[in-house]
Amino acid sequence: MNTNRKKEFLFFSIMIFIVLLLAACGNNDSATDSESKDDGGSEEKTEVTLDSEMGEVTIPLGAERIIAPFHEDALLALGVTPVAKWAIGESLQFHLEDKLQDVPKLEWTLPLEQVLSHEPDLIILENNMENYEGAYEDYSKIAPTYVMTEETTGDWRKQIEVFGQLLGMEIEAEQALSGYEDLVADAGKQLEEAIGDETIAAIWVIGGKFFVFEKDRHSADALYSEVGLHYPSFIEELGEATPEWNPISLEKLSELDADHVFLLAAEGEEGIETLENSTVWQSIPAAQNDQVYMLEDASSWTNKGLTASTKTIDAVLDTLKK
What we know:
This protein is α/β, with parallel strands linked by helices. Helix content is 47%, strand content 15%.
């Protein structure tokens, strides 16, 4: 090989070596950048920032001792047990008691000393705080406090989503809501097979008075708008539920044209005896066809939430599929 060829070969060898070296360095840099991004993406969040009734707030994640008075249903949907449960004296949300029976009571006005005694690390309140003994600032001194917006307060699905974000349990929230939708779809099919397009109505009998569920009152909304059960013209004429729930007279009940009627009443309720002795009541289609059903526990029917709706749907399924 002559001298010129040797020089050319040496030059090209050096150039190839430099190119390979630069490529290797570039790959290492890319790998390092990628690892840095991966490390950054895998950093565990320690707080969450959400809109609330009090504006945008930042709440630390990792809370374990939680108070969410009257909205324990949403916590239970995530598999979380609160440190205290809503109560008005001896009155409770009895449909939740199978999971909350060992949880101490917290008076509905949220006395500050009671709240403090439970040592919460997260307090979740409704948007309307007029019934609470303390103000937002008072509860915030005890623990990080989140005040739900009006939309969230009135929508149990939204509550599960928001509670999931507050607790870093978004996946659990999605699974809970998805599972409920599956239950509703299955119940709809079973009840369609059981009663077809026959109509149902529900009446809460308490203190000798009769409260008929409108199509959107409490858990009746789950039966009508979600499961797809049909309501009679009597329910249609009642219109939408209002904050004040007025009783229906016995004479008015004579117009109840439902094929199936659920009576929700405690054992020994005087109103049931009134119905049994009434020729007016005995004249309605459901009574004539022996399709009036007594249920002693009205708690799930008179509330809204995943557990409330599920138990109400299950009660209807168990009754009408017999």
